[in-house]
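Run log, item B.
One chain of 128 residues. Sequence copied directly from the ordering sheet:
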Amino acid sequence: MEQIHALGRRKAAVARVFVNEGSGKITINKRDLEVYFPSSILQYIVKQPLNTLNVVEKYDIKVNLRGGGFKGQAEALRLAIARALVKINAEDKPALKAEGFMTRDPREVERKKPGRPKARKRFQFSKR
C-alpha cells in the first residue's frame, strides 16, 4: 500500500494526514500523539474513526496540523483520518458516516461588526 493523503478542517484548524501500513503510531508535527494532545479526551476524539473500524494497530499516521485551538485541531484530525480510511477501503464509509465522522462541521467564528463590541452584541441602550 502506498501512502494515502487526506485533509480535514474544523474552525481555523487544518490537518494534513499521511497514512501508511504500520504499528499504530500517530505523529503530529514530529511529536507523539500523547505529547501533542496530553488530554485523554482529545486523544480519544482523534482515535474515534480507528476505534470504530478496529484498525488502531494497523496504520502509521503522520500529521501536519496548523491553525486553531486544540479542540478544533483534534476534530480536524478526526475528519482527516476518517477521509483517509475511506480512501483505503470504500466499504468503511457507511460505518464512519453513521458515527458522524465524515461530516465537515461548517461552523466558523462570525466576524466582528463595526460599532459593536462583538459580532452581535450591542452596547447598552440608554434612553436618557
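Observations after the first pass:
- Residues 42 and 116 are 34 Å apart (CA to CA).
- The chain has a mean pLDDT of 93.
Flagged for discussion on Thursday.
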